[in-house]
Amino acid sequence: MIKIQVPATSANIGPGFDSMGLALRLYNRVWMEEHDGIRIAALDDTEVPADENNLIYKTAGFLYELCGKPFSGLSILQENNIPMTRGLGSSSACIVAGLLGANELLDRPLSKSDIVNLAAVLEGHPDNSTPAILGGLTAAVLQESRVYSVKVPISERLKFALFIPDFELKTEVARAALPEQVSHKDAVFNLSRTALMMASLFSGRLENLRVAVEDRLHQPYRIKLIPGAEDIFNLCNQLNAYACCVSGAGPTIMAMVNVTDVSFKERAEAALTTFPQKFHLKMLDCDENGATVSRDEGMAESLNLEETKWG
Ligand code: HSE
User: Are residues 69 and 166 in the same domain?
Assistant: First the structure.
């Protein structure tokens, strides 16, 4: 089988709405091979669509069609570690897995940059899909079906605290809450901070992050859709995190913490027990490599595909 591993991603990072994102060391894994018909199963207890509405399947089929190759179906096994509809790039991860898997099965007709372009077009914006493929911190612009991007590594002194609530927030809903127009002043407020954020994360000028993370384009509207978000922002301030922002379209909240602050998790978890809204905390490092594809013949043998409980 082909094995694809795709990292979680956090888009926007405060001011960089639809343009900046970073990859995190939390991975979805997908195994795929050609098959007559659809066979889809989750290796964990996540419920995934087991028909042609499955996003990995749909995206892989799309690539076969784009390349003019006959598509008779796939066997897909999914290990889902990225929480769904939480602002951590789970749908980007499916799109990237579908494209990379199908590309490998077709003997790689597409280059990596073709995949970056196609993933952004399918996703609609490039700030999750680009770091999911390239890893690290990326700035990306999608223009006329092409992504113009730069990937840079992030300061090794940073760790990311992800406060993941037990409810979902659909990206469409979080986007519908945004105003159609913003003032020139707010646009300048954000673009100056986006530039500062990118340069500061890259160079390690961590003292800039508290100002660089501020945003006036999306968070003020979205926070109202995330019960408990303000408590998390206040907590991160009290615990001296460098910065705190809504991850992607939410509802997860992400804080940036110094790697030497080893008690952050314990102190934050103690406070979380007193909050009315439940948040699960994950401490993650940045992933610098992005998605990977490999052959994994052992998987089919170890699982015995004929006996697998397909969805
Ligand atoms: N930039 C996007 C948004 C990320 O904030 O809506 C969600 O996929």
Answer: no
